Fold each of these.
Amino acid sequence: MEPDFWYKKWEDNVIGFHKDKTNHLLVNHFAKLALPKAGRVFVPLCGKTLDIHWLLDKGHGVVGVELSEIAVKQLFAELQLTPSITHQASLIHYSAANIDLYVGDVFQLRKSNIGHIDLVYDRAAYVALPLAMRQRYSQHLIEITDCATQLLITFEYDQSLQQGPPFSISNQELHQHYQHTYDLTLLTSEVLEGGLKGQCHAVENVWMLKKRINNRDFDSKTTPKPTRGRWKGMLPILILFAVAAFLVYRYNVDLKLATTGAVLAGFYTGLISWLLGVIAMLPFIGPLLVKALTMSFIWLLNAVGYLVAYIAIKRGYSKDVLTYRGITIALIIGLVLGYVLGSL
């Protein structure tokens, strides 16, 4: 809808979408979202919803955006808060303890404005936008909230019987817009008491959207990309392989032995990749361990250790090799733990 449509709604006080109590769907399903204590909740197109009162009472920070300054002023008055008001480009920022509301177009809002977000609570934003805008809106929300978990409430009804907003949202459309980034879970479907605007049967759906695991594994902000994409890290390994190939040729090493070595090297590489993938799924510490274990220096140190060990064994120093390898492994473990503890 055009901004003037909503401006006029608030100017004329035609705000049937505003409820006189906290949304029971938020109350009933909030605990399932596992929001951290004092987490920050983003409420797009928030109006002056009483849901914000409830979130603040729970100790959470609230960030919102709303087109109408009338709505934002009324919300702060009802909260009995005196906001500080600043201008940020085309947005007006109303701020008080634990709450930041922006007056303006949601598409003008940037991640730098809202900061870190733990949860998006979308009760009346997605359903308020026509189809042509919903795809753009969903992508914009993903970008500025860094794929934060969402509690999304939608309506389903015969669109031919009632002109939106709120618009009817099919499950198919929702998956089309979000499934590439989120795992979607339908928490509940409830028949809307009295129908939509008292005119047609409607169902209210409550969705939980959580970031897909396969997107989280190699998120550049949490876990580094595989080392094979970094030439500086791979260069020492490639040099070692080249040296090994030259030695095989120069000293006429048995081909079966060389082939076995290549197969074992491939198996070892695959095993390490699998282990790193498993480690990356550990909460908090997993990404740090993967980052430390894939550092070029660690790989180079380990590779040199294997090379020296091989030469020492060939010359009859097997017992000394065990001691040397123990020291090398202890050094690597110390470096990894030091990096992880220093990053926490």
Note: The domain at 3-216 is CATH 3.40.50.150 (Rossmann fold).
Amino acid sequence: MRIEVDLKKCTGCGVCREECPKGARIWNINEKARASNLRYCHLCMICASKCPEDAIRVIRDEIPNDENKKENLGN
């Protein structure tokens, strides 16, 4: 999982930190937003949905289902 911030779009307004349930644990705002300590992230995507500049993308790692696991193991 990762959070990408488009630095060309981000204005550093802080809405992501204000709206995030974990706020300052995840978000640092110093002219631009930066996400860190992602172990606290709930993957709720509130930050991305509330960003007025549409500068945030939450990218979830794909978790293979049981069928994909079998195919990857050669079964």
Note: The domain at 2-72 is CATH 3.30.70.20 (Alpha-Beta Plaits).
Amino acid sequence: MFFERVWSYLSRVNKVIFQIIIGTLFSHPLRGCFYGVSHNVISSKKKTSVSDDQSVGGQAVIEGVMMRSPRRIATAVRKPDKKILTKDAPYIAISKRHKLLNIPIFRGAVSFFEMLIIGMKALNFSADVALEEVQKTERGADWQRTQGEKIKDGLILAGMIALAFGLSLGVFFALPLFLTETMGMSKNALSFNVVAGVIRVSFFLAYLWIISWWKEIRRILEYHGAEHKSIFAFESGEELSVENVRKYSTHHPRCGTSFLLIVVILAILLFAVADTIVEMQIGHRPTLLQRFITHFSLLPLLGGISYELLKLSGKKRHSRYIQWLSAPGLWLQKITTQEPDDAQLEVAIVALKSALKET
């Protein structure tokens, strides 16, 4: 019983790690599935051309999908009894509410943290629903959690997220720096960051490939595919029905994974320049800790620049150079998305429709 409980906790932690890596790194304008380009969208059953005011995007969560439009955020989750539970709320991006926060590059950094919070809230909601359903199965359908149990479960989920974030930061950010340092590559800032970047991407790809075989994680990948299909149908002006959505691809060219190569190259150059400046300031090559602090502090700037590049690439998406740069990310979507079933498509459609509500 003890080992089963430990394994269950480890399983949940791994889900959260995956959500942070896929959702946090690839679900906002730097990372991913929030598309900020003009396109044709559906208005009732009509196909009309509109502006960025109708741009939408989303994120897969545990047994569900979160969708965001410029006016509303909605998360739909499939419960074990097959019913779909939906949570939605009005939303206006903070950069739209405060003009000073809408400055190029700076708005991307602000969006980085805003989408991180939104993604974590959606993940927490889906995990909370899943946890409550498990407890009802064990204790009876009429069982209701007390306020104390809700607080305890919330603390457990928060702890899992913190642990997952720490592990992902250590494995995919700090460890590549340590390995590159031990290889004796610290003499040249550019070569150091190229090697560290290659190691980081290799770890990331290996991790994705390994966990993609895990049944529970595969469910999340299928919901990721459902999210892409429903947005494809929306952009094409189709009525949002399972039959219409089913025919579209799970590989969306404007998911942030499509621009992984751009972000990787940008990170290498940015970190190399930063290391050089630090070395000039302190008079010697930065230590491993100094590199970590410098690189970590530059993540908001990396997010801001990447955001602007992603917006630009959306406007220039027919350029063969942009298509070439996005190709590796589309290949990666063969791992990060899987073909969903009709029930998963229905959840994604419910989330998207809820996000598109006017009030």
Note: The CA atoms of residues 38 and 51 lie 5 Å apart.
Amino acid sequence: MSGRFIGPLAVITCLIILQGCSGDSGGSNPTGTGDGDGGGWSTQLVRSGSFANGEINAAIDANGKLYVSAYDLNVGLQYVTNKSGSWVATLVAADDGDSEGTHNDIAVDDGGKIHIMYSDYYGIRYITDETGDWSEEDIWLGGGGSCCIVLDGANCLHATFDDGNYSDIRYISKPAGGAWGSSVALADEWINSSCDIDVDGSNHPHAAFNFAGHHNLRYAFFDGSWNVVTLEGADDYPYIPDTGWTPSIAVDKDTDAASIVFWNSTDNRVEFSGGAAHAAVTIKSTVGWARPCVALDSAGYAHVFFGEEGSYALNYATNKSGSWVNTVLSIEIGEEELAVVIDSADKIHIFYSSKTYLDLYHASLQL
């Protein structure tokens, strides 16, 4: 296995269900608020590099410190954090020519321990410093694609991933300090797909994924057993419209309501779904390829961010007023990949690649 940890550069019990957003550090002296966009947003250089060709994902700890996993072209998967006060980067998996870490996700537990999942040519891998020292293991062998990971209130890990050669979307979990259980196939999706996962207030997992074989959006949730429903698109041939791509999900811990955003390819628009009992609504029409991401504030309102193919403008949409309002920010991004988290003080944090140099940037706004 070529992917490996290199080192620093500068409440319920867990469900074990059988079968189943190179260069200099950019952070020893962060650039402060940067240019902003004139609308209250502050921007900051996190790390120089080329971060437009892979996923960017983020997590936040109880102290408001930020943690980012991001793929740097021809370098590999980077883990970047400001927990020391400055941005410090670590190379998690060197890119040896097979785009290791282009798909990735990150979570941080109550003890400040890091959990990263990523895919490479061989499958799905997991790296953590949970025991003090960094350790890495294979979660799945036989190819891998999209993968995502989240921690619940009991510090149990929940993950979904595209298992590559076997063409399934799978779920797997691990209790705090324990071992990964057996995975369960949520759907046989035939071809490369994308997925996302979150947990509700009862520590039950909720997943959204593009069921690529039928070109539709699926929503899976666990309430003692798995329920998998189609939210958008057709279950029968010819499987039109082609919808449900690049989903992102956030679950309200108070109401257990899911907020799912995705790109509808056939109708060329970004849409929002409130889960199984709610019809999808359009956030923005005539959008080129987009990879929207969503986070919830303390009142449960959704905040959605996305770029557009052919446009460098960052879009920000929210339903905080009671209806969806989309704003095109003057923040320019390099590609569609980005990540958003909202801290306990309702401050939004976005990570994205810049338009000109494709460096990794952080933008923030106090709600």
Note: The chain has one domain: 21-366.
